[in-house]
Task: structure prediction
Amino acid sequence: MDTTLNNFTIQVATVNGSGSQSANLVLLRSIFNMGIPCNGKNLFPSNIAGLPTWFTIRVDERGYACRRKDVDICVAMNENTIDADVNELAPGSVLIYNEALSYRPRREDLVVYPCPFTALAGKVTTEPKLKKLLTNMVYVGLLQELLGLDPVAVEQAVQKQFARKAKAVSLNLGALKEGVAFAREKLTKRDAFKVERRDLTAGKILIEGNAASALGALFGGCTVCAWYPITPSSSLPEAFIDLAGKHRHDKDGKATYAVIQAEDEIASLGMVLGAGWAGARAMTSTSGPGISLMTEFAGLAYFTETPGVVFDVQRAGPSTGLPTRTAQGDILKVACLSHGDTQHIVLMPASVEECFTFGMEAFDLADRFQTPVFVLTDLDLGMNVWMSDPFRYPEKPFDRGKVLSASDLERIGKFERYRDVDGDGIPYRTLPGNPHPLASWFARGSGHNEAAQYTEKPAEYKRKLERLARKFETAKSRVPAPIVKNGGDGEVGLLAYGTSHWAVLESCDQLAALGVKADYARLRALPLPDAVEQFLASHRRVYVVEQNQSGQMMALLRMHFPAHAGKLRSILHYDGMPLDAATVTEQIAACEKESAN
Amino acid sequence: MDTTLNNFTIQVATVNGSGSQSANLVLLRSIFNMGIPCNGKNLFPSNIAGLPTWFTIRVDERGYACRRKDVDICVAMNENTIDADVNELAPGSVLIYNEALSYRPRREDLVVYPCPFTALAGKVTTEPKLKKLLTNMVYVGLLQELLGLDPVAVEQAVQKQFARKAKAVSLNLGALKEGVAFAREKLTKRDAFKVERRDLTAGKILIEGNAASALGALFGGCTVCAWYPITPSSSLPEAFIDLAGKHRHDKDGKATYAVIQAEDEIASLGMVLGAGWAGARAMTSTSGPGISLMTEFAGLAYFTETPGVVFDVQRAGPSTGLPTRTAQGDILKVACLSHGDTQHIVLMPASVEECFTFGMEAFDLADRFQTPVFVLTDLDLGMNVWMSDPFRYPEKPFDRGKVLSASDLERIGKFERYRDVDGDGIPYRTLPGNPHPLASWFARGSGHNEAAQYTEKPAEYKRKLERLARKFETAKSRVPAPIVKNGGDGEVGLLAYGTSHWAVLESCDQLAALGVKADYARLRALPLPDAVEQFLASHRRVYVVEQNQSGQMMALLRMHFPAHAGKLRSILHYDGMPLDAATVTEQIAACEKESAN
Amino acid sequence: MTTTPVAEATKANLNRAGLDKAAYKGSKSTLCAGCGHDAITNHIITAFYELGVEPQSVAKFSGIGCSSKTPAYFLSRSCGFNSVHGRMPAVATGALTANRQLIGVGVSGDGDSASIGLNHMCQIFRRNVRMLYIVENNGVYGLTKGQFSATADVGSRQKGGALNDYEPIDTCALAIELGCGYVARSFSGDGKQLVPLLKGALSHNGLAFIDVISPCVTFNNHDGSTKSYDFVKEHDIRLHELGFVPHYEEVSVEYDEGTTTRVDLPDGSYLTLKKLERTYDPFDKRSALSTLAASRASNELLTGLLFLDENRPTLDQRMKLTERPLIELTEADLRPGRAVLEEIMETYR
Amino acid sequence: MTTTPVAEATKANLNRAGLDKAAYKGSKSTLCAGCGHDAITNHIITAFYELGVEPQSVAKFSGIGCSSKTPAYFLSRSCGFNSVHGRMPAVATGALTANRQLIGVGVSGDGDSASIGLNHMCQIFRRNVRMLYIVENNGVYGLTKGQFSATADVGSRQKGGALNDYEPIDTCALAIELGCGYVARSFSGDGKQLVPLLKGALSHNGLAFIDVISPCVTFNNHDGSTKSYDFVKEHDIRLHELGFVPHYEEVSVEYDEGTTTRVDLPDGSYLTLKKLERTYDPFDKRSALSTLAASRASNELLTGLLFLDENRPTLDQRMKLTERPLIELTEADLRPGRAVLEEIMETYR
Ligand SMILES: Cc1ncc(C[n+]2csc(CCOP(=O)(O)OP(=O)(O)O)c2C)c(N)n1
Ligand SMILES: Cc1ncc(C[n+]2csc(CCOP(=O)(O)OP(=O)(O)O)c2C)c(N)n1
Ligand code: SF4
Ligand code: SF4
Ligand SMILES: [Mg+2]
Ligand SMILES: [Mg+2]
Result:
């Protein structure tokens, strides 16, 4: 029997609210503690308790981090889904199932390990609720033995998971042991999957994107956070609340930040704009339906030139859609959110590290360009656990943009809020409360001239719009540039953004193995920098990979680079599941074959 | 001195709230009554009383109906704007001004007729408020004499304007006479502008687009109208209220329609969707900010497949912008309104007649495709007075789409709300209250399968999205097709939609005179029908004329027809004023010159 | 297949619509075991079954939240519209205007109605749309994992310990203030009270609003919560003992006129309010408002029929709407004739 | 240029901030001649001038409507934010949280606050943001030409004759119900009453809400209107005669303790309420609510200070916000050090 070392997937099928999340995180961290790259994705229902949930761990020492569609090891704990879970397994996969379920094995082509998980947990405790929880740790023990997990690594993981709760630690270690013992005594290993210690995770972290974004906001100097709960965004402001609660106090212990749970998303953005206008770094965080509700205020922010940061943790669907599934379906909408001619700066982090850096950068850009900045992540990035290099302490100081203090005004002797003094389209602003007699101005969403006075004059109104266009021209060279990875010969280019990155990274290698050599540019921001055009110009066929139905980024590219519109092709994925490499590779390979014919 | 016959513009500069609107309409109708094509545009401030307002009449027996930028005859009644008004006049223009103003003529190159309007009105009445109103009729009298207006035509116009108010008629006729007498006695005609009776308006009507749209809703069978006031849309539902109040009662005098003034635009669309789901033909009407607020519900309607009609009378600006100025700035936004992958059917009438026909058609399309239909007009079309053929009585019966009654269900024996039975992407629906046991279903904005049951299954969710795409494919051949006007040789094509049509029509002739022969296709709906692609394919350069800053329709064309993206060029106009032909002609001529070089 | 004859026992379980209780159920609930909302679902099923309402004549509405999911769990033979967060009242208003024969039932949550949807709830009170409007009130956003909603009481604590010190929104007080004619409060665990209130609501001519305290076992059932089962049981003060006698009941029910008030409803049904400890007059708006304010101040939870007024015009009445449902009107009813168009054209000449 | 010496007479007109009244004016109004809103603008100017408020320390907020235009017409030395329709409270909340030293003044209309913006107004009452919130209430949407708003009274008629029969929203009743600590009603034509109320509001610690009946001469000043000058003059019942004594006034003002109540405000200023015909206790929430309900029923317009409670925590207090305005915090205050990041990273290992 061949051994498949440090390269497999585990899927635990369970029920939400059953407490399996701790066990799954222990499992994940055990592998991580052994120096092997891995990450975890939680596939959960839009429900609080009682419905099917799947946790998937991908172990891959090459570092590939996207979802893999095929499950190598299935741990089946859910009566209601076990038939389907088993049906989906490829021949040769491993099935571990709880003998307490009514399921009886029917497939001959699997490596099946039945285990009386519930009974084993019963050896550790007789308290029913606790027993239910501990059942999950038993499968971790079983896997420890089967995969060859280092017991020290596992124990460390348990300690970390149940930190400061000695009783929980010992109960869980007990359950773990039962699993190990059962496997040792009752099971004979008949499968190929093994782990072996490596040194590839030293210093690294395991973190969710929403926590990383919240850290960005903390280190980016955010002082006002107004939000309204919505999945999969809530954990971002909630992480900010935790972090600020710990790290943001003045010497009297008073808060140097404010968090307001607003009555809805309209008010959330309204509060952010009020705060931004007053001079604070303010943010909100939401998902699709909330973005839709923010539409009117987004236009006000654009037109009055008020800074603010909006995190959009995208989820699947038009309307309510699939609130607990992932997608990249808002990009076209957010790019021009609001009626009339409106456009926005949009950042598109692909990694948890970029959640952190862009989380800070967003505040700088908002202040610099005096406009709302949207940070688009998605459920996959925001709520799943990713391995990453630790975040580096920011070396760049805050960029608070063109704000004039009273003494600046005294020196300059004049002030017009909306005049393009520097020719870059960015005007100067003062903050309310500035005591200088020249400082005051009136912000309005209606037509205004350079002096911020009301106007309906066609020429003045047009001048304002043209300056705004100039400002966004300036922004092109200031937002994060695309990152290009060479590998091709000028024939084929790939374009992607956000979490699609991980699938495309792996797909590049898969394609190369199939003889398709491609360059790959990862887009990181709107407005689209000039470098994007260069990339398009230097390839004959460009595939735009994204997780939506209508090819929204491709649409933006076609709009902005019409000369290359004809060479763009969409590689789409929109069933709510995180994108995997095979889906990308298959579609591109098929297209390439056609191109070759 | 040459005579310029039946071809000039008059601009009356006045103050809003001063009652000049009646006088201006009398003037317009007098010309119309003489059989000469004309229309009137009101340029008013976002204010109730006291600010400058301009009313422009274009008289043109060739039938050109767009704005003309140059003013031939200026009637200056406003102290605050007279200097600017006079400055803008081209040499040789006529200036008529009220001697009661402090203004003293400074320009030698104008034909100037001073007139003591206020004093003349004082001869008719001493009551100050009335005198102010009547002052306006005096200039009508003056113009009657100067232009050679038929006194009978003018008197008819006065009778019509003040219908059923005998006293008002006689007072106004009195004021009119004073103007005529003064001109006769004190002025010598020194200008070229004259009218002469024609027979070009027989049977025609003068009407505003909003009234025409409301008529469409009335004859289209709208029964529920939920709205929230906003300029320039309010006069549409208000016209519907008037019309339905007169023509929609059952035999007991009870209303066969419902109008609800909602608390906001969110609720307006929510009510429309509730009514549409229940089986009524329902509509709302709004403008930019309201469209933004409707964003979330628009996605719900798309995804639950609920019919409803939304009129968007576009105004200028991102944000509040210029609420009393015109634009075509919402098209890209409305095309895909809401987060996620959403798309909509959009109708774009260019004329008051199309406001009527599309106003009806919208309800048929909404019912047929079970989706919201947006009718995009603009302030210029909605609130200005246009000459038109009378509206033809609709010959096509209502199309209520695929609704299954209890007896249908009995016959068919099964029902699944979201199954694509006919392969056209359009499912069947039942209405709540249908007594058949098979009839019930549950509408939800979350993921659902063919049986309308909740689902999070990737394949089921994707199938739903794909059927929706198929439905919109079907819609392409069902929405109004573009109208093509040939005149070119395959080199140059023009594309426009909505009110830009009128400027492009005239511009085509101007361009032809300059040697640029162009074909012209007028777009009338989204999704873009295949004929658009054919038009693009058969021209080397295509100019897309529209009234916004970012070239929104061009963006849609580039998205959908990438093979032709490179040949599209934007001709833009976005200062809030109605589009004129010269602006189009100049830009295109310049581009063509460049192409030739 | 064999046809099983309907057993006598089963027949006895059929209501006047000829249906058994199962016909009023919906799909299986996916809420947490023990959630108050599921209990309310059962009381709704009981009320509709016992009244013998034709399920097909009912239209169900909701927003978004655990509570807003429940219309899928009752009356599966009725059509329903699960709309967007906070906007249920608008959707219901449209549908019930379009078809005035529908029996409207809206289910919402405290987040849905008192936070994001507060404006729409207030305005539907003013419009007085004929429908039953239930708020399943647990003081938190259940579906998004337990944040405070706008009905959380001053002094109540979140599961994580956070304290609420914002004035709660008393939806019943707002309903009374804003012109709603049938206002009640109840508890998910008190079917004896809630079922008659639901039945009475269905006989009311206009909007009937019922705020039902409905504990969230997962996020708001701990010590420190004022919406937990324990707290409610301790602080619940029932204003009266409720009974409901439907209009089609042949035998008239006996009650003691000294202690019991009979409240007649427009369809001939009536409620009986049997006095308990306190005297409470549900017909006096001012006293209702001030009693509610006082109860809040003293941490009492008053349940029962808080206010009744059968004389408010409904939205349909205000609009002088035709008796026929608008959706039944045909082209002949709706499209004016040629002569009318010609006449209108003439006004524009 | 020559420097003109300040004349004695002018000097006498300078307030304690060293400014004359002109310094409190704004740009020229574009409202209709006679509009109530312009009168309110003048009273605002008077109050700020007389109090000697530094204009630069004020931030003005509004929504959309004729009323919402007015912040441009007063205090041109203050910054202002004319936002979107109905959402002023949100914008003000954000700004005043960001800079707690700003003196916030919000001006809204009845359409802006009681129709589209009702939810936000209700929630800002609950949050108790420190600011003066004025609703210029004319019962109609002025700027969109006269449609009824949600404050139109039952029985009032539109200019075109249409009758309103929806229950009006009494914004003051809602304010009291939802925890606002300073609630008043006045009339645009009654500067004697409104100016002290405005001054008192500026001394209040929390949200001070004033509903000012402000006739729309163009669309709602006819017979049949309940917001016309004539109607208000006939139905206005002043609850008390108001005086205001600022904290910096040296001489203490004499008043009769038998007929006059002194109401102390947190900054040391006080209001005097001299009894007129009726007895009214502005400190009792329940009686305030029931008196308001009764006045509505009997078509009386009660004006004056309706409710006062200085003991409600403000939003800033609830958030335990640092005294320094958030906007003054620097990178050193806001960006935790390297060690903190390292420590946080460790928790993720
Ligand atoms: C516009 C919008 N914002 C936020 C959400 C997320 N969301 C779903 S349910 C919910 C709160 C539900 O609370 P409540 O109405 O009290 O219902 P419960 O779950 O407590 O029964 C929220 C905020 C959403 N679906 N839509
Ligand atoms: C979202 C949105 N909807 C509608 C409008 C149109 N609108 C402008 S002002 C106004 C009503 C203003 O009424 P009110 O607040 O009472 O102010 P008033 O003019 O009476 O002082 C409306 C509906 C708008 N600007 N924005
Ligand atoms: S989370 Fe709370 S409200 Fe939601 S189902 Fe569970 S117990 Fe009920
Ligand atoms: S329309 Fe009414 S509210 Fe607006 S400015 Fe004129 S009088 Fe005032
Ligand atoms: Mg709740
Ligand atoms: Mg108003």
About this structure: Chain D has one domain: 29-242+278-347.
